[in-house]
Specification:
Strand content: under 5%
Distance between the termini: 76 Å
Number of strands: 3
Helix content: 55-70%
CATH topology of the largest domain: hpI Integrase, Chain A
Oligomer: single chain
Number of domains: 2
Structural class: mainly alpha
Shape: globular
Largest sheet: 3 strands, antiparallel
Number of helices: 14
CATH architecture of the largest domain: Orthogonal Bundle
CATH superfamily of the largest domain: Intergrase catalytic core
């Protein structure tokens, strides 16, 4: 459906003034299109606080996940805040509407033995196998988000000093060390027998020519393409739906803490703005510690003798 002009102006403002990514803009557009459709004959400029509150309840009644409802609420509130800020309406009807809370479960992590099985999945010397090995080693070894992985350019990787420049959320830059296994896998992929073997005679764009990870058509690998690589090898390793790219990031953090890493170090590695996000992994590590203790210690569950 065609979105109203005020929505298009808002999306343009997000892109030009706030620098939101194409993926974020797509999510906003989808949320606001559904909102406009629900409003029906009600003009956006005429929306009242009760209308927004009823829309939030409508989303809940459809059985939407809490995170989906929260994201849609943020999109709607942001639109109305923009309209008020631009003087297109007198008041902001969304200001008093609370964003529904999203339950935060503990991040999932897979065991180290399962990670090793996954990393051993890409077999062979063909370019796709070399690429997939490098991708999996970097996701786990460097704790990258999938968007950070596919966003890597050749100038961001320094195999000599084993450092990687990563652009995280909000284009925030950080330096990440590259472990030995990841460095070897990257070097193998970036060789003439890997990436060089699928480079096209003529690049479609400069962005493709600078990309670290390419698809088999010689273009920068997309998020969807990278996701498929992870899922394919997860299936081969017997992990199935248990594995996602973010699970490898969670596993990286959890395993580092298990082996004694300082929480501030893990925070810097993952690019968390707040240490509160990183502290969630300590709960996972402690849970695994308790489980191992219960299994292994002879007096963990035994009843003491009188």
């Amino acid at each position: 459906m065609t979105t109203p002009l005020v929505v298009e102006e808002f999306l343009s403002w997000l892109a030009t003034e706030k620098g939101r990514s194409p993926a974020t803009l797509t999510a906003y557009r989808r949320d606001l299109a559904a909102y406009v459709d629900w409003l029906g004959p009600i003009m956006i400029e005429e929306v009242a606080e009760d209308d927004i509150a009823r829309y939030v309840e409508h989303l809940k009644s459809l059985g939407r996940k809490p995170a989906t409802v929260a994201r849609a609420t943020v999109s709607v509130r942001s639109l109305h805040r923009f309209l008020a800020g631009e003087g297109l309406v007198e008041t902001d009807p969304g200001a008093a509407v609370d964003v529904p809370p999203v339950p935060r479960g503990l991040p999932r992590a897979i065991g180290e033995e399962l990670v090793l099985a996954l990393l051993a999945s890409p077999v062979g010397d063909e370019p796709p196998a070399r690429r997939d090995r490098a991708m999996l080693e970097v996701l786990y070894g460097c704790g990258l988000r999938i968007s950070e992985l596919v966003g890597l350019s050749l100038a961001d990787v320094d195999l000599g000093d084993r450092l990687m420049r990563v652009f995280g959320k909000g284009s925030k830059e950080r330096l990440v060390p590259i472990g030995r296994h990841a460095a070897e896998a990257l070097g193998d992929w970036l060789s003439g027998a890997g990436r060089g073997a699928i480079e096209p005679e003529k690049w479609r764009s400069r962005d493709d020519s600078e990309a670290v990870f390419l698809n088999q058509r010689g273009r920068r690998l997309s998020r969807q393409g990278a996701w498929l690589v992870v899922r394919t090898h997860g299936d081969r390793a017997g992990l199935g739906s248990e594995l996602t790219p973010h699970v490898l990031r969670h596993s990286c953090a959890t395993h580092m803490l298990d082996h004694g890493a300082d929480i501030r170090t893990v925070q810097d590695l993952l690019g968390h703005a707040s240490i509160t996000s990183t502290q969630r992994y300590t709960a996972v590590s402690q849970r695994l510690l308790h489980a191992a203790y219960e299994r292994a210690h002879p007096r963990a569950n035994s009843v003491g003798e009188s």
